[in-house]
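Comment thread on ticket #2218

A.B. wrote:
> Attaching the input chain for the structure job we discussed in standup.
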Amino acid sequence: MRLYLVRHGIAVEGLKGGITRDSERPLTDEGREEMKLVAKALCKMNIKADLVLSSPLVRARQTAEYIAEAFGLEVKLTDALAPAVNHTQLFKSVARHEGAKEIFLVGHEPDMGMLVGNLIYAGPAFEMPFKKAGVCRIDVDSIPPSGPGVLKWYMTPKIVTSLMGKS
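C.D. wrote:
> Ran it. Output below, let me know if you need it in another format.
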């Protein structure tokens, strides 16, 4: 099983312009453009996505929509990817989608970095800060994993921009 962990793109800072809760903060124009480019790059990588699961927060949901659109999928929302991810609940949420083998999980930091540590059995001292719109692939044998997963790659938006010939 291939898991693609994604941190949401650049979002509006703070509560302003009618935004009254953190959960309502949308992507900025820059964040939307960056996610379009990241989604396009992911498609060029021969990924055969089966499922896109996302935190219900606006910025994560918008991020997931760019990925889902690129792969012709629908976004499935799960509270298990909201801030303060509960890994057990997340694994149950993923397991509900039997047959899915290439799964995008769109969430928040520090949760995505901590999830990497959990999936590769790195221990509590492991830290992997995710850049906004960053994506990593981890291969696992099952959900929940019965052994350590393998971190295959991690791609920042800057890497995507470089590879896609944008500057």
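A.B. wrote:
> Thanks. Noting for the ticket: The helical segments are 29-44, 58-71, 87-95, 111-119, 157-163.
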